[in-house]
Amino acid sequence: MAQPVEDERIAVQRRTLVSVAAAGLLVVLKLGVGLATGSLGLVSAGVESSGDVVAATLTFFAVRLGGRPADVEHPYGHRRAENLGALGEAVILLAGGAIIAIEAVGRLLGAGNAPDAHWYLFLVIAVALIVDLSRTIVSIRTARRYRSAALRSNAFHFAADMAGSVAVLVGLLLVRAGFAYGDALAALVIAAIIFAAAARLIAENANVLMDRTPTQAREEAERAIASLEPDIELGRLRLRESGGRYFADVVVAVAPGQAVVEGHRAASLVERAVEGALPGSDVVVHVEPRRTGLDLRDRVLAIALAEPLVKEAHDITILEQEGSVSVASHLKFPDDLDLRTAHAVAERVERAIRAMPGVTDVQTHLEPLERPLMARPADGRADRQAMREIERLVRERTGIEPRSARLLSTEAGRVVFLTVVVGHGASLVDAHHLAGELEDQLRRQVPDIADIVIHTEP
């Protein structure tokens, strides 16, 4: 990534140096011929171009500074130096426009004479128009390609120069036709163009420096996020622009039961959506559990998991009666936690659930979180006998052999892993019911069972 950024910076600096050279050429032509012939319009255009020389020089240094990578003191980079440079250019334009306007008013009040409209005046204007048009096009294309505020401001200057050259041409044509004030009026038009360009530069770059988010950019980002899965709810979107690049701070809410992996996936979807809507953006996404638009089970889960000591909440049962709802839930705590603390936490959970509309009764079952079990040497004869009994019971209950069966000996007792086959037309409820009945039967008839995990498949 570093090399393309460096190439971009060098390309922008080259365009800026070309602009400085072009502006210097126009200053020499316009000021020299304008002073020699007494054309205020051409002198005004020369003053404007001399301001462009200073402005383009400022742009060169602003682009060099803005090309530096982000650091500890400037985590968003240095590209806002270009916006500061653009504001400096606007100040220069305002000063030049004021000088031109004062001189033009003096001419209109009779303090000066009309210039002689020699043929070489028109030649200078033609050269200026060609140069202004070419560098305006180049600056606009480069500013769009590299998202450079400084080059975009240069493009405004060059376009204003071109409009000023047209105004001078019209003014000289009027002088040649016998209207003595044509040149002074052209100078006033140039002053107005300068003021308009400066005002636009100030408004645009001041908004960026004040972190004002463009409405269109925000709407595009919001639409991109809204097009994602319905479970992803936008909580907050903050955008800031720096040198044509957006930095997005996004808070989204997901269902409280989602795992960390699912939350990370939701964050990745949001990042890609914003980057797709605003290319080149730097997006940071914070994921939090959603509090609105949840069913009762999800709200119960959210309340339980909001307690730091509750490590798991499962077997949430919603019992609906006429006019009331009862809620039951199993809460798992660290196994070294004392009962008094666990009970206090469960009481808070129950009160929060009971405060929900329609809930009249809440019951929680407190469990310790399982520790990792340590394996122990297997009792070969006893384990083989237990496995035969397990396989026999599975055949009696399902009619076929278990697809797989494994018996592990631990310090807490035997752990059984079973995979059994159920009918193709069986529902998930049917399969779960079968597994539950088989588990109860195994616990009754096979000694020393600590846990049974039954996987059902068609």
Describe the structure.
The protein is of the alpha/beta class and 458 residues long. The chain folds into 4 domains: 208 residues, Cation efflux protein transmembrane domain (Alpha-lytic protease prodomain-like, Up-down Bundle); 75 residues, 2-Layer Sandwich (Alpha-Beta Plaits), CATH 3.30.70; 73 residues, Alpha-Beta Plaits; 78 residues, 2-Layer Sandwich (Alpha-Beta Plaits). Helix content is 59%, strand content 18%. It contains 12 helices and 9 strands. Strands 1-2-3 form a 3-stranded mixed β-sheet, with helices on one face. β7 and β8 form a beta hairpin. α1 runs antiparallel to α2 and α2 packs antiparallel against α5. It is rod-shaped, with a radius of gyration of 39 Å. The two termini are 51 Å apart.
What's the total helix number?
12
State the major sheet: 3 strands, mixed
Total strands: the figure is: 9
CA distance, first residue to last residue: 51 Å
Look at the structure and name the CATH superfamily of the largest domain: Cation efflux protein transmembrane domain
The whole-angstrom Rg is: 39 Å
CATH architecture identity of the largest domain: Up-down Bundle
Mean of pLDDT: 78
Query: Which sequence of SSEs, written as H and E, runs from N to C?
Result: HHHHHHHEEHEHEEHEHEEHE
- Which percent band covers the strand fraction? 15-25%
How helical, in percent, are the residues? 55-70%
Overall geometric form:
rod-shaped
User: What class do helices, strands and sheet pairing give?
Assistant: alpha/beta
